[in-house]
Write a structure and sequence with these properties.
Layout (H helix, E strand, L loop, with lengths): L1 E6 L15 E2 L2 E2 H10 L5 E5 L10 E4 L7 H14 L4 E6 L9 H9 L4 E6 L2 E10 L6 H6 L5 H8 L1 E6 L13 H12 L1
Parallel strand pairs: 1-4, 1-6, 4-5, 7-9
Antiparallel strand pairs: 2-3, 6-8, 7-8
């Protein structure tokens, strides 16, 4: 049983701020991510730093305030999963609108005895698209004490498996960071 948490705590400064509210194909990036998550679990939350996101019909959890970046969102996600008695939590970013439909199944299949399963495509590891055992939360204090703060670093510290998707021109892990990326996503959606 997994929980799904959408990581939406980034500032989105390269796109002009408020990235989750940007529209693609008539829907916000956040609405698209929530719809994807609903196909995977009934235990869904959105992790935010300090932005207001309005009512999207799922729980909202605050990023760990003392930890910047996606790691703060992962800590919130792990706590949410633990509170919901989920065995693992799948983290999804708001800015990857073309995620593969088999994401959760493939990560769960390969997780086995590892603490995390992380998506890999085109030789790029995507730690924001990861399935993390809920007990990874127990390893967070020691990891933070080491001074490191990256998702990849935590995955390495707890033991992870990379789950590879074929490199393809229409990369399902394409992410939107700039207005040009958003325009490219609109083009891909129409194609």
């Amino acid at each position: 049983m997994i929980a799904v948490v959408i990581l939406a705590g980034g500032e989105g400064s390269r796109i002009g701020g408020d990235k989750p509210a940007r529209t693609l194909g008539g829907n916000t990036l956040l609405d698209r991510a929530v719809e994807f998550a609903r196909g995977l679990s009934d235990k869904i939350a959105i992790a935010v730093r300090d932005q207001q996101i309005g009512d999207v019909g799922v729980d909202v959890v605050p990023d760990e305030p003392e930890v910047e970046g996606p790691l703060g969102g992962l800590i919130a996600a792990l706590r949410f999963a633990s509170d919901k008695s989920a065995d693992a939590v799948l983290t999804l970013p708001t800015d990857m609108p073309f995620l593969p439909p088999d994401l959760a199944d493939r990560l769960e299949h390969d997780l086995a005895d590892r603490s995390a399963a992380i998506a890999l495509s085109g030789e790029h590891l995507h730690p924001v698209c990861g399935l993390w055992h809920s007990d990874v939360l127990d390893a967070v204090p020691d990891y933070l004490a080491s001074g490191r703060r990256s998702l990849r670093g935590l995955a390495e510290a707890v033991g992870y498996v990379a789950v590879e998707w074929p490199d393809h021109p229409s990369d399902p892990f394409f992410n939107i960071n700039t207005p040009a990326d958003l325009a490219e996503a609109e083009r891909r959606l129409k194609a």
